[in-house]
Every structure is written in structure tokens, then in C-alpha cells.
Amino acid sequence: MANNFVYSQPVKIFFGEGKFASLGDILAELGLHHCVIACGRHFASQAEKMREENSAIVGVFGGVEQNPQLSGIIETVKICRETNADAVIGIGGGSSLDTAKFAAAISLGDGEAEEYYRGTRPFPDKRLAIIAVPTTAGTGSEVTQVSVVSHGTEKKTINNPVFMPRAAIVDPVLSSTVPPRTTMNTGLDALAHALEGYWSRNHQPISDLMAIEAVRIILANLEKAYRDGTDMEARANMAYAALLGGLSFALPKTAASHACSYPLSEDYHLPHGEACAFTLDSLVRINADERLEYLCRAVGLSGTDELADRIAALKALGGLRTRLSDLGEVDLDKLCRDCAAHPLMNNNPVHMDEDALRRMFEALR
Ligand SMILES: [Zn+2]
Questions:
Q1: Which helix (H) or strand (E) holds 333?
Q2: Which protein residues have a CB closer than 5 Å to ligand 1 (ion)?
Q3: How far is the CA of 259 from the centre of ligand 1 (A)?
Q4: Distance from the CA of 47 to the center of ligand 1, in angstroms?
């Protein structure tokens, strides 16, 4: 019953094929005239070209790594200060967006980047605008206040309103060159966002609607986008579904699959989407209840078993790792301990302590 919730979504969203070509107009509309681009190496030369052609782009940091490092953020901040920037544009996967978010949040502060990272100094009151341009259909980072940042081997997920983008430009054309494996990983990450936002203990009705639609679209399009990356209809549908996935967990937060994904990424080096997918079908069965049955029927499935089977089939199609034996030598005690200790675990509708996690992982031997 929808009787008690607070819903807020402050990001202006520009969606559509070819929308990225209007970046100059969008920046002008937002009153931004000194923007720094943060991106990975694959986009760096294009970003330099944009800087030459568009006077509103004043700097480029083109060295964002897959797990974005604090050192890259410090570089971006330096460029922002030198160019007197008013915005940071993150272009790429979650790493570029998270780098842009963090750099924009601290550029106008007096403290060291590490102090903000450690939480020993509050984020400055004033910050640069964040423009998020995702090139993969997955993280939903363009509509959330989450930034995942690494410092050496340590990785931190920081959730703070200072990371909320001013605008998101979601252009499916940008995802057309993403390779199949990444398409599957990021698509399953989006599916995990929708399902976990939906079954989160903090679920709420408007987010639920977007979660159901995201699940429906992903189940109808992910396989197509994986098999044929040039299928622009499937790509556009996935870009939209990933955006909905981001919106559906932005307030409720994710749960056990994401909680387990962090130890799986850190100790066994699974990419984020693959790490979330590792436990997602197991958790569909564990979390099966009346609400999840409702979602399954709403998206045209017979029930939760079919949903779990569909996820398992997508993982198999993408060649993802699905068993503990695929991970090499596994320290199951440590894995269960670390998963249970993750704060997102408390968001799971079914209480998952170390024993419950051990039962889940034992079934994946
Ligand atoms: Zn995720």
C-alpha cells in the first residue's frame, strides 16, 4: 500500500539517439562554460578533439582506470583548478562517472583528497556541477549519489548527496561499440539494480514501477544486444532500462547481491556486473515472496523460478563465471564473513547471516 514515502529525483535527464551531439547546447542551457572531461583512455583522443572544437570544454583528464583511483581524481581536480572549471563531465562507464563525481565534489575545497575519501573532513559546501554521460548500459551512476573509488588496493563506496549529477546525457549510440561480454556484465548489473531496488527493505512505490519496467525491458533485450551489438533498437532499450534500473535503486539502495559483489570483485577480481550476477539467481530463489511473484507476472513470467532460470541462462550465454570452482582457490569462511559484514546486506528482505550465505555459496560449488 503506497501510504508513506518521500520520492526525489533531481537529475535533469537528456535521453535519445544522437543526444550527445547536442552537448554544446545542453551545457549552454545549463549555464556551464568551463567544463573538464574525465574519461578513460579509449575516449581520450575524442575528448581532446571536443576541447579543440568547443570553447565550453577547457580541459581533459583521459586516464581514468577501470577501478578509478584517488590519484586520477587528484589529477582531475588539478585540471579543474587550473582552468577555473564550473563543471566536470564524466564520459564512459561507472569509473569515469565516479571520477567526475568525486573531483567535482572536492575541487572547491581546501582539504586533501584523501581526507574526503577517509571521511575525516566533510565535503565542501560549494562544488562544481556534474554532467554524467554513460557509455555502457549498466551502472545507473548517472542518476545516483554513489561514487566508488579505490585508493591503492582499498575500494570504497561512498554515498553522499554531493555526488548527485546536475544532468545526465544518455545516448544509446555511445554504447554501440561496447563488446558483448561487457554488454552482458553491465546488463546484468542493471537487472540487479532493478531487482534489488524492488526487493530492498526500503522499497517504495514509484521506484517499484521503474524496477518492474526495467526488468521487463532487460529480459526482452539483453540477449539481442549481446548477440548483435549493432542492433540499435536493443541498445536503445537497454540504455533506457539501465537508466530505469539506476532510478529504481537510487533511493531504496541495493541489497545482498551487491553486498556480495564487493568481496567477489576485490578478492576474485570479477568485474562489477559479473560479481552481482554471481549470486543474483540464487537470491531470486531465496527472496521469493508474494511481491516478487507479482513482479514476475507483471513482466510476463510464470513465477520466480522462471526469473531465476532466465538469469542463469543469460549468465551461461555470456560465459560468466557461475560456480565457486570458477574462482580458483576460495576462502569460503572469509567470503561469507566479508559478505555478511557489508552494510547493504541489511537491506536484503531475507536475513542473510554467515550461515545462510554459506548455504547459498555451498550450492554453487
Ligand atoms: Zn551495480
A1: helix 332-341
A2: 189
A3: 10
A4: 26
CATH of the domain at 350: 1.20.1090.10
**273 and 138 fall within a common domain:** no
Q: How confident is the model at residue 67 (pLDDT cuts 50, 70, 90)?
A: confident
Identify whether 5 is part of a domain. Answer: no
* Centre of ligand 1 from the C-alpha of residue 76, in Å: 24
Residue 189, domain extent: 179-362
Q: In angstroms, what is the span from residue 149 Cα to ligand 1's centroid?
A: 14
Cα distance between residue 138 and residue 183, in whole Å = 8
| CA 186 – ligand 1 centroid, Å | 8
167 lies in the same domain as 186: no
Helix, strand and coil content of the chain, in percent to the nearest 5, comes to: 55, 15, 30
DSSP 162: G
**164 with 292, same domain?**
no
Query: What per-residue confidence (pLDDT) applies to 155?
Result: 84
Residues 259, 319, single domain; the answer is: yes
Rounded distance from Cα 138 to ligand 1 centre (Å): 7
Domain tally for the chain? 2
Q: Report if pTM > 0.90.
A: yes
CA of 354 to the centre of ligand 1 (A): 22
One domain for residues 134 and 281: no
Ligand 1 center–CA 53 separation, angstroms: 34
The reported pLDDT for the residue numbered 339 is 98
Residue 262 belongs to a domain? yes
Q: How far is the CA of 139 from the centre of ligand 1 (A)?
A: 5
Helix or strand run (H / E) with residue 89: strand 87-92
Residue 51 CA to ligand 1 centre (angstroms): 31
What's the gap between Cα 200 and its chain centre? 16
What are residue 113's phi and psi, to 5 degrees? -55, -40
